[in-house]
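Example 3.
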Amino acid sequence: MKLSRFTNIVRDTDYLLHNTLSNGLIRVKNENLKQMIDNFSSSGTFQLDPDNDFQQTLYSLNMIVHDNEDELATLHSSYFNFEHNSELSIILIVTRKCNFRCSYCYEEYSNNDMSLEVFNNTINYIISQIEERNFKNVYLSFFGGEPTLMANEINEFMEHLLEKIIIYLLLQISKLLSLLTVIY
Ligand code: SF4
């Protein structure tokens, strides 16, 4: 085994490992495990221990890979799929406001709403991307805060968008604890 060429290690009080290809992310606090990571990075290649849970976790997150793993081929393939993907996915944070107060919420409930300019620019962006990249499907998610506080703006946005494009479009609105899904 070897450390993935895409694994970045930030050595601070805890170690943070991030793999830019798989987007795997892990924080390591245990001193023995930190030592193991240091050994991995200095030794080049090493034997995978099938009974070691930590190593298995690193492997499942692509932090470590087999010696003969061709990671550049994986990267090229990911890029090819990205280039030829027929689906455009966009998440719009339409407001930071919310009329609920979940105990686990990380929002600051500021009064920031998405501006008309950003709504309009988003429509232009979607149209330009459909023309340039020939997307067949568009997935739109309205997120917040509480996005239904912007129901009028979202309705107008959708009307303007659908005036300009005819496309299969999946719309999702994160609504309090549930998810309202509308298919156009
Ligand atoms: S509904 Fe969402 S934004 Fe509102 S308080 Fe709960 S977690 Fe926060």
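Residues 177-184 have pLDDT under 50 and may be disordered. The radius of gyration is 22 Å.
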